[in-house]
Design goal:
Blueprint (H helix, E strand, L loop, with lengths): L9 E6 L4 H14 L5 E9 L18 H19 L8 E10 L2 H12 L3 E5 L5 H7 L2 H8 L4 E4 L18 H10 L7 H4 L6 E7 L2 E9 L7
Parallel strand pairs: 1-2, 1-4, 2-3, 4-5
Antiparallel strand pairs: 6-7
Length: about 220
Amino acid sequence: MSSVGAMGRFIVVVGIDFSDLSNRALDQALESACCRDNAEVHGVYVEPESWVGVGLSRAPAAATKPEVALQQLQARASERVRALGAKLDGRRLKRVVVHFRRGDAAGNIAQLAADLDADLVVVGSHGHRGLERLLLGSVAERVARLARCPVWIVRPKDHATAGRVPEIEPPCPECVKRRQETGAADLWCARHSEHHVRPHRYSYATNGVYATSSAAYHATPEGN
């Protein structure tokens, strides 16, 4: 993350589209803001100028009226703040602000971040592929390309279906079983252990003082 801005505030911008995934992104934005002093979270909903082909987000009712959309954004933000409860540090999180804009979602999110001199942008990725991705593109990817600050892309944890992405294989069931059986003392099954590179060593450090003992670091397998 970048350093706190010139005014001493830590500003997080988060995209909201009223989906369950954007709830998760908002939660992550609120929690991360509480790691810094004098923090603000700015949630923004961007209404497309044309709804043709857009059926992926849950738009607020009567979103063409900014005052209605802002009320619903405020309600959603308040709901998530209440849901997180004690996880949030009110001494650090100074305020939560909502914004309503029209037009290109990625461009408006990145522009708001620039307007506010934001330190972090949080967006959800729905993981659309194929024709949906070709027609609509990825808002998260475009935000990451356009924004001039760190961008945190929130997506559901789902390694089991990674095989649908050609470059990423799902986890080996035998490796998962081995970790469960050994309490993660062994990371790989017998087949994958054969492909490890030569282990190197690491030492623990606390307050800059290295421990006298060291242990072997088990590298990731080179292949299957």
